[in-house]
């Protein structure tokens, strides 16, 4: 979340799937049992959330989600979320650095594997030469 900055929360709605697994409990009751992390998440996004229950026969859950999306759009004056150029460059630089480290680790693994195989071949050849002598 640090990559997006605090502004992302103005554009966030948490969608819970598998509402049928609540087994008759309200989502609020479920929140109370799930601890501080979930409470923090909901607080950060202005308590905007929606529950999708695939067993529900009515369209109210879809209508509620669309209404929340419309509310977010209105509250943000119709603007969508965008990363600023500086943040975008930082993200790209971090991504490039991670990829470079991954490539370096892969080369080390391949080198160690090659040395291990060469060592096993030499050991095998040595054992065979000992048997022949």
Note down, in words, how this protein is organized:
The protein is mostly helical and 133 residues long. The protein folds into 2 domains: 6-75, no CATH class; 83-133. It contains 4 helices and 2 strands; from the N terminus they run E-H-H-E-H-H. It has helices at residues 27-33, 36-44, 60-75, 85-132; strands spanning 14-16, 49-51. It is elongated and about 85 Å long. The termini are far apart.
List keywords for this structure.
single chain; 133 residues; mainly alpha; 2 domains; two-stranded parallel sheet; 4 helices; elongated; GTP-binding; GIMA/IAN/Toc; G_AIG1; P-loop_NTPase
Summary, kept brief:
With 133 residues, the protein is mostly helical.
What general outline do the C-alpha atoms trace? elongated
Major sheet attributes: 2 strands, parallel
Overall tally of domains: 2
Assembly of the depicted chains: single chain
| Helix-strand string | EHHEHH
Q: How many angstroms separate the termini?
A: 67 Å
Give helix % range: 55-70%
Strand content: under 5%
**Widest sheet: strand order?**
1-2
Low-confidence stretches: none
| Alpha plus pi helix count | 4
> Can you count the beta strands?
2
Structural class: mainly alpha
Based on CA atoms alone, the radius of gyration comes out at 27 Å
Mean pLDDT: 85
